[in-house]
Amino acid sequence: MQKVVLIPGDGIGPEISAAVLKILAAAGAQIDWVEAEAGMAAYEAQGNPLPQNTLDLIREHKVVLKGPLTTPVGSGFRSINVSLRQEFNLFSNIRPARTLPGNHAPFKDVDLVLFRENTQGLYSGIERWADEEQTRAESIALITKEASEAIIGAAFDYARKHNRKKVTLVHKANILKLGTGLFLKCGNTIAKDYPEIEFEDLIVDNMAMQMVMNPQRFDVVVTTNLFGDILSDLASGLVGGLGLTGSANIGEGFAMFEAVHGSAPDIAGQNKANPTALLFSSMMMLDYLGQKDVADRIGAAILKVLAEKSNCTADLGGCRSTSEYGEAVIAAL
């Protein structure tokens, strides 16, 4: 049995986590869960949104499945998601976006995987007030050769392993010549080691336009932190929204799998939330843990339930509760 740290999350997190755990158990996943707290729930209970005990458990067990966490806007504590990625150097954020059966997505035949550098850029936390009156703020985007090579190499390795044909690197080197210029230079160098994979680079604003005109042209995409944050959500929108896309954060020896949608406090405790995103994230976790056969079984069951719609939650066109949706996936197993 593999021990995995479970952070159920805030808002709807405990409900969707409970549904996912039942499905994984029914599918035969070999996991021993170790529950921990983070986010608003931990802050209210312990006065710390990221308790030391939670960090210690992650260091011990190496793998985390995490529900959505609430981050205060404009004030309060810093994003726990960002803190966890930096604390454990989870430099590679992997966000697949694939057209699914039964949903009313704007596009068909989308199948792309976005790799986002997860620890640097404008999310490095290097900020200061430039005057005493606090009328001017400065934020520094840190981009290093080491981190750029790590994420670009991960994207190319994924493309080779999964028989993907093309890698698109997204940048803004026409304006941000040093930072994203360095990122682009690293990409051009690394691409030479993968001659069987087509390589292209696109400026980020052009990339955004191309993604909503012809998203089918993209295969594997790699970019910096802020651009990746925005484009990965855009990619989710192409296939039905954040409720239908999983996410992995992987580093050297540590991995965190999470639902990237919000904690939806307005429907918390009402058994209405859609657990699909956390389910897809858990499938990525199973693959990482060497239990791909279990992940594939769950994936086939999810696709069956999504295609039928009647057993889905309301946001997917059905009329079932969170727990009923989970039971439908278990029945489809």
Notes on the protein architecture:
By secondary structure, the protein is of the alpha/beta class. It folds into 2 domains: 1-94 and 240-333, Isopropylmalate Dehydrogenase; 106-238, Isopropylmalate Dehydrogenase (3-Layer(aba) Sandwich), CATH 3.40.718.10. The protein is 41% helix and 17% strand. The chain has helices at 13-27, 40-46, 52-61, 80-87, 145-161, 179-191, 204-213, 225-238, 276-288, 292-308, 322-332, and strands spanning 2-7, 31-35, 63-66, 92-98, 111-117, 127-129, 137-139, 166-171, 198-203, 220-223, 248-250, 255-258. The strands form 2 sheets. It has a 10-stranded mixed β-sheet with strand order 2-1-3-12-11-4-5-10-8-9, sandwiched between helices. A hairpin with a 7-residue loop joins strand 6 and strand 7 (137-139). It is globular, with a radius of gyration of 20 Å. The relative contact order is 0.17.
